[in-house]
Amino acid sequence: MDAWVWWLVAAVGLGIPLVLTAMPEFGMFAVGAVAAAVVAGLGGGLVAQVVVFAVVSTALVLVVRPMARGSQRQRPEHRTGVEALRGRQAVVLERVDGNGGRIKLAGEVWSARALDAGASFEPGQQVDVVEIDGATAVVM
Description:
- The protein is 46% helix and 21% strand.
- The chain has 140 residues and is α+β, with helices and mostly antiparallel strands.
- A hairpin with a 7-residue loop joins strand 1 and strand 2 (102-105).
- It is rod-shaped and about 85 Å long.
- The model has no long low-confidence stretch (mean pLDDT 89).
């Protein structure tokens, strides 16, 4: 069997763990094996094939992997549930103080209390939601 066939078998063999584990490094090694198969198909010796495999695989790991990790860090944060309510504004429906009250937040009526126990907010005022404590919005 020709050497290029063995390199293609190796590429497929490296592609299997890529699919099973979702580790992109296996794909980079598979591309290196395909490059070595091309060198073997063009008549390159075993040393040239191994060098091409090593250089292509290493280059892909060193260049593509940091780029992929950087793009993962730049994703915008998508908050859901009570996390999405933090920082939003609400309208006071019933007087809110350190003991309680009611606000309209995101179209729903919520129980609320003031962050500062001495503060109070009158109906119609805009307040900012600092956190959600159980089913109570803490506002300021």
